[in-house]
């Protein structure tokens, strides 16, 4: 009789946990920071000028995001703020503008159906990139730490990707291979498989993530708020697959390279656009 009662208690506890997870909604507020290095010809730019530019940009490239989620769906979007525009820096007669280009873009993920829709902008035209979610082959390390009120576990992921670099004054894009290294800290105290940007697939919410120089850290989490958490599906833009969007992006880059071929500019201004 005691064993039956114990089994029944565990069964009821499991049902309560499952029901709670199924009805779980919330918002997680993240701050991002970037680690990067400016590298230029030292004969054209003094090291102290490069250091000053880098210091200015690092602070300006901090961003705030909100992840709104239910058990199966989520939205990821940058929080609107006065400092959310392009990062700019000037020193020693040089100026740099870094445009992340995602201030108003919405990312929708559905982990149950394993697909996503993401707003993108290419040369002033809006697109809706729709495709299957990337499957991250996470490796659990067994390490743990506390973030705020939550106990987190460490997971890592790496892969080699093909990339192309656009340089002013050159006729062709340079192909290279890069290694992507990702570290995620997730908590099973919030049993949803969501995370910053397009990352997902762990048995708990990702509260901290490092991705090749970019770091996201959750600073505030609101679970089951009184105000209903609305999960929006993007609708503005031409629907396109991720592969077709990548091909179109490369075509536009080639057009730009041809337009500026042999025209490296006046040497005093560098404009960089960072995208996927």
From TrEMBL:
Pfam families from the UniProt entry: Porph_ging
Source taxonomy: Bacteria, Pseudomonadati, Bacteroidota, Cytophagia, Cytophagales
Cleaved signal peptide residues: 1-21
Stated name of the protein: GLPGLI family protein
Keyword annotations of the record: Signal
Lineage top rank: taxon: Bacteria
